[in-house]
Every structure is written in structure tokens, then in C-alpha cells.
Amino acid sequence: MTDQTDENQEKVTQMLRQVQEGNREALDDLFPIIYKELRRLASSQLSNERSNHTLQPTALVHEAYMRLIDQHSVNWQNRAHFFSIAAETMRRILVNHAIQRNAQKRGSGVTCIELDEAISYHDQAADRELDLVLLDDALKQLEGFDTTQAKIVELRFFGGLTVEETAEVMKISESTVKREWRMAKSWLKTKL
């Protein structure tokens, strides 16, 4: 990492702590800095959705941001920690949105995503689709016996983080992330 990148990450970390302490000015300064990254994450998630998805990236970003900033019990460690929680928050929002939408349609029009595209399967199942609610259920099962793999899937899939960013957030090596990511994808493939 460059010194400039380190400075920017430290600046975000300081602002997060100031926001947590109730500094509204820091909140106003923080939003433009992290908005672009949150929007990228939201766009990444929603680009895998079918075109009839009713939740737009801007709405997802704003809802996630409001929930994140309202977290007074979180001790923001750094920028990476913030985006880890952001990935989890976006997961909850998307799954809740899918549940509500499915309930309104009484099971028809299930919100689907391309599993292969979203978690980089490179095999013959390129046309396989997956329901967000089913993915969430599978992740809960995975979390029951391997929290590391479940968190990696959440960060990579829902958070759009790279291997490097995931390693930073989880404080593990990139090779561990790659190995656990492969095993988690294999497990999910059998479950879904």
C-alpha cells in the first residue's frame, strides 16, 4: 500500500470514531468519502440481479449507510471493519427485500441471482440461478460449522471485497482466503 492509501484509510477510521462519538460534522465529511465505495458494492450486488429488481443501488446504499451510522455499539476499528459490517448490512437488506417481495407475490417472481457469476464458478453450471433467501439460509448453515468460510463468502459475495481486502478485514493471509473461498464455493455448490 502507498502512504497516500494508508493516510486515507486512517482518515476514514478517525472519522468513523468521531461519528461514533456523536460528531455530526465528521458524519457530513465521511459520507462523500465512503459513498463511492458503498455504491460500488451495491452496484456489484444488484448487477447480478434480474432486470426486474425493484431495489436500486442508491436506495441500498442509503439504507445501509443509515443503519451503519446508527450503530452506536460498534467500536469501528478501521475502514476495513466498516466495510465488513457494510457487507453484512447489505446482505440483510437484500435478503429482507427478497423475503418481502416474495411474500407480496406469494412465491412467484423469486428474486434470483447468478451464482456462477457472483461467486466465480467456472464450470458447466453457468446458467444456474439462485434465490437470495436460499443463499442466506445456506450461509447460516455454513456458519454453523465454519464461521471463517461463511464470513469470507459474505465479504466477497455481499460485500464485493477482493481477496486482498477480505484478508485485511479478517486478519488472515490471502492464501487462507483463497483456500477457504474455494472450499466454501464447493460446499455451496452442493447445497444449492
Q: Would you count the extended β strands for me?
A: 2
Helix content: over 70%
Total helical segments: 9
Task: Note the run of SSEs as H and E.
Answer: HHHHEHEHHHH
Gyration radius (Cα, Å) is 17 Å
Oligomeric state:
single chain
**Residue-averaged pLDDT:** 76
Please tell me what the overall shape is: globular
State the distance separating the first and last CA atoms: 37 Å
Unreliable runs: 113-129
Query: How big a fraction of the residues is strand?
Result: under 5%
Strands in their spatial order, largest beta sheet: 1-2
Largest sheet: 2 strands, antiparallel
**How many domains, in number, for the residues?**
1
- Helix/sheet category: mainly alpha
Q: What are the defining features of this structure?
A:
mainly alpha, two-stranded antiparallel ribbon
Give a nutshell description of this structure:
The protein is mainly alpha-helical.
Reconstruct the topology from this structure.
Layout: H1 3-20, H2 24-47, H3 57-69, H4 79-104, E1 112-114, H5 115-118, E2 129-131, H6 132-145, H7 147-158, H8 163-170, H9 174-191
Antiparallel strand pairs: 1-2
Helix pairs in contact: 1-2, 2-3, 3-4, 4-7, 4-8, 6-7, 6-9, 7-9, 8-9
If you had to describe this structure to a student in words, what would you say it looks like?
The protein is mostly helical. The chain has one domain (3-191). It has helices at residues 3-20, 24-47, 57-69, 79-104, 115-118, 132-145, 147-158, 163-170, 174-191; strands spanning 112-114, 129-131. The chain has a two-stranded antiparallel sheet with strand order 1-2. The protein is globular.
